[in-house]
């Protein structure tokens, strides 16, 4: 793992994480720090994370959870600022997570999505080429690069056809091409991760499982824990027939750490559970965990434009090359997500 094979025992390994204060960034930092602690003989990590749009002093919860991480405010769309950040950090490793990550929002934020996800990635690769050419880089792409493929193509493998069907998917697909180009022509070490859908504690309510868990926690708080009392409260949902391959974010970040060390430059790796479930099934699992009476209602505003009907991946390649396999089952992930929202809805203990 990251700190195990050390050619420079005394020197810390400098790690740059873009989008560190986002959902995945926080889990990645927790994982890297826990691994460092576990592997006492490995290299010490010096982690710099970028935050946006907030300033470092606007992330008190992040500061409390990861006090050792140095936080730098950074807008990826500003090439000069990206160059300065990379020069200041001189990273040995870069996890590039920062992005406009919401597929639906990318339709209304086309320019911003292209400027952040594609041009921002270009700025980072350029800064690394000039300021940290020997850094190993992990570019986080997405299963959305596969777009709509028929059921016969499932499970998707890394050599399956690619065809983006949203501005978000387009930016990930084109930034993958950029990564392959830099790996080939500039001989930079850039590995591509293609995560399928993932969730877990800390995810924002713009993502479907997190949105449902939040609604359930709010309903429970209003019902004050009485399962049988009063009428059922309404949980609003979108398209339930969509099928997705869901992973736990904690499995995903473990895959990222392995890929950055062991993945092949210029190559893409699916990170997924290998199982596809209809959202209806996930909703059932969540509602079953609820302590309140719930009625489900379809809300047309939540039915997405050009929702990909089916995504299921194969993780054979990452297993073959790094040994990674998923460890969390979805029941645990959803229970932890619901616990997270119950605590958040209750607010800080007085
Ligand atoms: O959108 P915000 O305000 O939450 O900020 C996000 C940040 N970000 C940026 N950072 C630098 N310059 C920008 N112009 C810029 N625009 C957005 O990247 C957020 O703090 C971070 C991404 O975190 P999340 O939105 O929580 O995404 P998550 O789930 O952690 O996904 C990480 C990666 C992304 O590349 C996704 O596209 C992929 O995994 O699934």
Short recap of the structure:
This protein has 350 residues and is an alpha/beta fold. It is 41% helix and 16% strand. α3 crosses α5 (110-131), α5 packs parallel to α6 (167-185) and α7 runs parallel beside α9 (279-288).
Task: Kindly list the characteristics that best describe this protein.
350 residues, Rossmann fold, seven-stranded parallel sheet, two-stranded parallel ribbon, binds ligand A2R
Description:
This protein has 350 residues and is α/β, with parallel strands linked by helices. It has a domain at 13-200 and 247-275 and 312-328: Rossmann fold (3-Layer(aba) Sandwich), CATH 3.40.50. It is 41% helix and 16% strand. It has helices at 23-38, 60-65, 79-89, 105-108, 110-131, 167-185, 208-223, 249-262, 279-288, 316-322, 330-346; strands at 13-18, 45-51, 70-73, 93-96, 136-140, 189-195, 198-199, 233-237, 243-244, 247-248, 268-271, 277-278, 294-298. The strands form 4 sheets. The chain has a 7-stranded parallel sheet, with helices on both faces. It has a two-stranded parallel sheet with strand order 7-10. Strands 8-13 form a two-stranded parallel ribbon. Helix 5 packs parallel to helix 6 (167-185). The radius of gyration is 20 Å and the shape is globular. It starts with 12 loop residues before the first strand and ends with a helix. It binds ligand A2R. The site of ligand A2R has 22 residues, from helix 1 and helix 5.
